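Quick entry between incubations.
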Amino acid sequence: GAVVSQHPSWVICKSGTSVKIECRSLDFQATTMFWYRQFPKQSLMLMATSNEGSKATYEQGVEKDKFLINHASLTLSTLTVTSAHPEDSSFYICSARAGTFYQPQHFGDGTRLSIL
Amino acid sequence: TQLLEQSPQFLSIQEGENLTVYCNSSSVFSSLQWYRQEPGEGPVLLVTVVTGGEVKKLKRLTFQFGDARKDSSLHITAAQPGDTGLYLCAGALLQAGNNRKLIWGLGTSLAVNP
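Done. Structure below.
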């Protein structure tokens, strides 16, 4: 149980395009979803927290107009990287949590984004 | 300022050796979690410790939460190549309004050589 599916797992695109990443909780309802960015062999950097049906809360230094987050249902959140540039290349990971903070976060397998 | 210091950052050892990873903070955490992540995958939760002084064992892995709930350690006995990966600690920090935020350590990249 508690499976989080992230899609796509790998995407390569040209500079200037927008890329959408999906995060789905397959067997539970995720009231809260988190989006992280991770550089090689480094820790997770929280980008934003989203609760179903409300606007995402972005961490300091994360451009909300650059990284659009939508959490329209209890099983789906999307991250759109708008007008992507090479410096946006990274590993993006989502996690989902059911209920309150005391419930664990379940992570997707990440999306490797490469901008040429 | 890094609220949760994790050390060592990199560790390369031979199969059969023991190792310990530390997470330290000046902040008190309501709980602390340890994750393991393999390349190209998301982190997988290993354990959550909640009570000060708590010790949990998971096969060859022993997790300890400090008495003051400010630090934690992960000890691996007789490491095997399959233990290779990135180990992450994450502490739950109580914030205003009874909210909690997960604070992540910088990670320990472990390589166990056969």
